[in-house]
Sequence to fold (936 residues):
Amino acid sequence: MVEFTHIEEGHVRMVDVTGKPDVSRSATAEGKIYLSSETLAAIRDGTGLKGNVLATAEVAAILAVKETSAIIPMCHPLPIGGVSVGFIETDEYINVTVTVKTYGKTGIEMEALTGVSVALLTIWDMVKSAEKDEGGQYPTTRIEGIRVLSKEKGTA
Amino acid sequence: MVEFTHIEEGHVRMVDVTGKPDVSRSATAEGKIYLSSETLAAIRDGTGLKGNVLATAEVAAILAVKETSAIIPMCHPLPIGGVSVGFIETDEYINVTVTVKTYGKTGIEMEALTGVSVALLTIWDMVKSAEKDEGGQYPTTRIEGIRVLSKEKGTA
Amino acid sequence: MVEFTHIEEGHVRMVDVTGKPDVSRSATAEGKIYLSSETLAAIRDGTGLKGNVLATAEVAAILAVKETSAIIPMCHPLPIGGVSVGFIETDEYINVTVTVKTYGKTGIEMEALTGVSVALLTIWDMVKSAEKDEGGQYPTTRIEGIRVLSKEKGTA
Amino acid sequence: MVEFTHIEEGHVRMVDVTGKPDVSRSATAEGKIYLSSETLAAIRDGTGLKGNVLATAEVAAILAVKETSAIIPMCHPLPIGGVSVGFIETDEYINVTVTVKTYGKTGIEMEALTGVSVALLTIWDMVKSAEKDEGGQYPTTRIEGIRVLSKEKGTA
Amino acid sequence: MVEFTHIEEGHVRMVDVTGKPDVSRSATAEGKIYLSSETLAAIRDGTGLKGNVLATAEVAAILAVKETSAIIPMCHPLPIGGVSVGFIETDEYINVTVTVKTYGKTGIEMEALTGVSVALLTIWDMVKSAEKDEGGQYPTTRIEGIRVLSKEKGTA
Amino acid sequence: MVEFTHIEEGHVRMVDVTGKPDVSRSATAEGKIYLSSETLAAIRDGTGLKGNVLATAEVAAILAVKETSAIIPMCHPLPIGGVSVGFIETDEYINVTVTVKTYGKTGIEMEALTGVSVALLTIWDMVKSAEKDEGGQYPTTRIEGIRVLSKEKGTA
Fold:
């Protein structure tokens, strides 16, 4: 029988975790943004361009990780202890990986997923003038494969 | 030659749009979250459950649309005039569509994309106790196909 | 037949107001916080005390007015043009009045009501060490009578 | 002699609680919103309507509980461990109850009171098109009786 | 006779600007952060280092410009139309310049000053491990000369 | 060799502090705002004026201290335990001092510096109608000398 801990007797609630021990926890999530080959080539070749697109995405992701419990309604606020962001560029897409660490009472995968999503949205925003066609539409741009790569938990 | 309006001479900037006219604009974006068949069946069969999962996602999406310029660094703040959220449930995934309307100086697709992303992340958070396996991992859950369906612009 | 514009076909939405004209609008709301006579006397007699309690409540109210659309999910963001806060002290309670002005597409009473509520909660917080009994409970403190006093709208 | 811990020598301050032990704490607050009998009947009879009005108020209340220390100036940030929201509908009003739990250094009643206030304001916003008279005024709508029902504290 | 428009009859208020016309406006502010010569040399010589320190400060400044009315209590929210950030490095300090543009009802210098302040604080945070002495103190680091360089206003 | 812990292999990151012990920590920062002698005299002589300018700055500073990790990208969120703000008025400037206390895993000087900066910006905003010359410029107003006065750390 599947269980939905955020819903009880027809009402949403934020589950009580006050009795759970603080333990070290980490989670890593990833996702991809598909871009036109012209945009990807321009990012690959232009040092300043690349640095600025990815640095802006990194900063946005780290800030978003810290705001997760204000964005996702039932998320518990957790003391974010560390965040790192990585990028892999291919001929078709940029892959973003976010790892988040905490020492707290509940898992931190929603923070990693929120960081990945905001990094990908920020890349989209940074390159949108290059990705739009003449009608202002986006024939190529899309975000795919947002998922949790791993979750770890220490002992109390 | 591709153009990156948010970057000039090696620095990021928020492009100056003060000289552009206010016109009515709308954008629609969509995305999917793949879930286990047990979770999708429980949502389909449980009225209270379904109402709560989707209502929470709707509210989170609408709030996120309004916060887009605080989340995506180079986004211009726009006077959000209307937001609607739609869901389609299939045997494999829930599809989310968000339409945003404004009367302003620049396009509103980043707001629609942010609304879709936050709706999908909120669904994930609401069903995560049902989606995790015994090791606390997510074998099925993933977000795919976030894209702009259409963008429209009135005349000044 | 009563109408709920924020709900359509079983879904919440933020109503589209992009087609409405910008007009000057104002709204005034009020509310009361009942306090122990000792607390009210201390506020009445202590200039520094009174200044600090009411100034903190004023500042909190003005900031909250500006954050209303981030706090109330279906509220439209409006360009806040002016806010003023007034207090009346009696032997039983402090009455708070908040007037908000805008030049926008929809009414501004939720902003005035949010300002009043936050002013009253801030007064509570500022005097809570004086209001609590030995068991840490609040035998007297309560908030009453939050309502809209008037709403006005100019012509386009 | 009444004591105002947030004020010292004519200045506001956020009281230092760093030396206090972390203990489990909970607080429950309540409040009422009076509505017209037509609005209350429509909410009672319309499943979708009721679900949406109350679900939106629940989500707004839970988010507001987490933002309390950003809204109320002298409030300490506390690690919110759990939040639940309840509603009782009568012929005259809807009563909202919010219970908040933490494991921290100071009481959590301001969070419960903020959650109640925001739930009530959100209900107002959701039904405002039905509550306004022809002149755009609110002859019936008002918020009453916001108070702390109970506060509890564990041992260190 | 000096005038304080934010204070009237002993109360703070947010001045009513709803009757003022929308005009194009811009403001430029600057400020300096003094750093140790070792830190400045490391930033000058390390391309990756310099890019990351300054890009993070730029992004933080642009986000802060948009949040000014949530940080400075009596500031009116203004539709930010464009923001650019510049840096000059010398042997003693880094100078930051922020220019903000709007099309609105009141001046935008507080936004430019807030952007400069947050850029300087972010640089401090990014280099703090290099600036601290053995006792964890900052013998050199300080922020100086935050001022408005120019303010301009178009005609209605 | 200087060390920049927020940057690793050409990428920004939020340093992992989850393994560090919680200890009591405090930091005090200060800064000055130079104002015209007319403005300083008006503040000195007008009780209501002075109370309102400084109380608004105090409240803004305390709120900003709590928002530091949302404003400065790589800052860790810390459980703020206490904040106090002090002012010294001279014939040339107002000096602001902010002391922040926490019980956490990393230093709290960025919070004290952010509090000082926001207090100074708020004073500027409160007196700006008195400081501007006929051309709308600020011949006198400037912020100087923002620095950390002391940092202390207890033992685990």
Summary: The longest strand of chain D covers residues 23-34. Helices of chain D lie at 37-45, 47-71, 109-131.
